[in-house]
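Why predict the complex rather than its parts? Because the way molecules touch one another can change local conformation, and only a joint prediction can capture that. The input here totals 938 residues.
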Amino acid sequence: MTSTVSLKAPFAPGGAFELDRERCRKLLEVALRKGGDAADVYAEFAVGGSMVLEEGIVKSASRGVSVGVGVRVRKGEAAGYAYTEDLAWESLVRAAETAAQIAQGGDVAPQDVAEKHIPSRYPVTTPSLLVSGLDKRELLLRADRAARAEDPKITRVEASVAESYREVVIATSAGVYARDVQPMLRFGVRVIAERDGKRQAGSSGGGGRVGMEYFSRPGKSPEEHAKEAVRSALAMLDAREAPAGEMEVVLAPGDSGVLLHEAVGHGLEADFNRKGVSNYSGRVGKPVASELCTVVDDADVAFGRGAVNVDDEGNIPNKSVLIENGVLLGYMHDAHSAKHFGVAPTGNGRRESFRSVPMPRMTNTLLLAGSSDPEEIVRSVEKGIFARRFGGGQVDIASGDFVFSIAEAYLIENGKITAPLKDVNLIGNGPEALSKVTMLGNDMQISDGIWTCGKDGQSVPVGVGCPTIKISGMTVGGTDVAKR
Amino acid sequence: MANTQKEVDALLGLAEDVLGRLVKGGASEAKVVARSGQDLSVRVRLGEVELVEEAGTRSLSVRAAKGKRIATASTSDLTRDGIARVVSDALELCDLAQEDPFSGLPDSAELAKSWGDLDLFDPACDAVRAGEAVERSLRAEKAARAYDTRITNSEGAGFGRASGAFALVTSGGFRGGYTGSYASLSVSPVADDEGGKKRTSGYWTAHRHLAKLEGEELVGREAARRTLRMLGAKKVATGSYPVVFERDVARSLLGHFAGCVVGDSIYRRSSYLIDRIGSDVASPLITIVDDPLIAGGPGSRPFDGDGLPSRRNVIVSDGKLEMYLLDTYGARKLGSKSTGSAAGMTGTGAGTSNFVLQAGKTPAADIVKQTKRGLYVTQMMGFGFNAVTGDFSRGASGYWIEDGELAFPVSEVTISLNFDKLLKSIDMLGDDLDLKSSIASPTFRVAEMTVAGT
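Output of the joint prediction:
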């Protein structure tokens, strides 16, 4: 079967509602007519597709189209925002006028907009949406067969592929006109293993701003994801009660970057610091982590889930060093916070869709490698926890307290990884936990693309990465009080 | 939405047109949902406007079948081309899906044919303009900041209102629609604590009827009180203690339970409550009802996503699990009958409506008074619930209880216990039920849980 998906945005050149530079300039003029300081236009066309397999069959396939334009007007610390799903010129003008209500007085004209040259960090030649549905269906069926063949204790297999293609146009009253195409692919397998009345789930997944070539990468075939999901589910069938209380913790490389994302990342998003509500507010130049720690937010991870060519306000993000050798260097900015702090925007202004205003968000948040041998790190722990697979995390920006859940944890006894443990949460305080990082591995890994970050009701794809990490003391939320 | 019936009629007309095209294009069965909405939200901070956001939206979602092959599609593009595309996408994707013998619309004889007015729409919500929304937010924030000099900062206050119309038509003969509204107000004050830490908490009110929101001053003061009470919070020693859950966090626990009684999680073997009908799953104090017919309820609806009549379902009665919540598909999978709980409008799956743990008789304050030593939880963090095993471990903050009094604030601890044991060890149930959200619970106490701290 050939695919008939059209990926042409209605506002692209030659489209029914073309938004060229001149039209954008006119719209910005309307937006600033009441006297705002600045305005921007964000046009988005997104096509999403998904297929889900369960009980051996692809039960349903789906596709969705979302298209619209948002107009923002800024005046001092305030912003007016309106969007429309109807791209007719009158509707766009109405949205611009609605957004303009925030401003009164003044007289600012937009600059002529000029096409901005942006980098190419995810040059996918064939978006997966243009690949035959049957090819993608086969990926799911292959994962299903592999998982079932792996072990008879596997009683259920679910596999899914979700893909999207997003084309955006960003125009600002400062004269920027940028266009980007943002593909995204995510594949996942989840299995249930059952034995003697015990039941456990295991999962594996990945992807990023990639095309179908993803599945040819080492370890990324549907079969390999299926095997990993099965391994994890089977391992957890023997899980026992986890200990409770403060102890040493070793985190596996890659996905443990979630800890960084929560413990440090959110607190360094500049909107919280502009408002002075983050526990990192006013701490630039001061130590906030152990000297081993250098943390960066890097939008330039080729084909990465958190990779960004141009942010949703028309700025190009590069590598921002947030913490260097334990000292806080700076925050992640959107246009608003950059203006407030009098610094250049870092290109972290992101939004979920045209239905939302941008705010400072992470891209790929990475803790850089140290020099320790990962095995030596485990050997150094007399009694503690080894965290291998992760659920999600959450942080309280004000206090810096954060939690993250571990889906696959093991006990470390006398320098050896031993018994698997039931689901457990770790809780800590950002700067306190990072000051207790006493060893960092030389095995830096960037997580495979599975993470989505939520803030103020907006979800954006992000990447995380880190080497093996040893934290000398964190509270482990198990149930077993006696085992301390 | 000046004329709600007119808007519903327009959506029904659109949906029927699309349904006709799907059937004409070769769908053996089809279902179409059309929606529209109008939203306003404003945010103020430190006495100044921060954001005014306004928009109207419309969308279409469809579900089509060719025999037993199912596909879904949706769009926000309601131009002629956009509508043509959603129809052709759905029809094309049917060929990609594999035959699912359990799929299909419900028996037409069982469809809802008429329904009463559930009082879901208040025109006063829609009438709130940006200026009034800003005024309300400013009043609430001001009350919070004026409450105590220790409130040194603010994450702001926000007012939002949304209204929407909805229409569902199916090739099985269902045709229905309704409108709803919702307004909310929230405040998040900030206070400085020791060691560079800050404390924030907040309070919110929400209702389908504008006049039923709690007053701005009350919301602001309560937000300030909740923030201040966290000042000086510390960890406690790891151990096993009674844990009291304030109703807003008790609700979050009930949400975990809700996810385990929907039919999908049962046939997917992803619930710890598989094969437990008729057995005890909670303490005898506990009765849980899912009721979509509560007038003005936040989760109320006159019919379900399959077009079946809404009905009140008793899920847990005096601790015993009576039933699962099922849609048509889940019922076929489990060899049972739908409970009128289809959530997904075009997907499959059951969901909750107003999912309520029925109030007990003990005044909430007495639960703390009658606890010699333990933890009073007012906030939880993280995602530590495994529905497959029921293992539960989440971050928590609140107060330490000593001799029936709230002694000092606590933060950065975790609370853990398998959910089956947790619900069975509820030994006190409050009378303070509040229906501001669609999953609701009064305060309750769990006799003993592991609290991990230092």
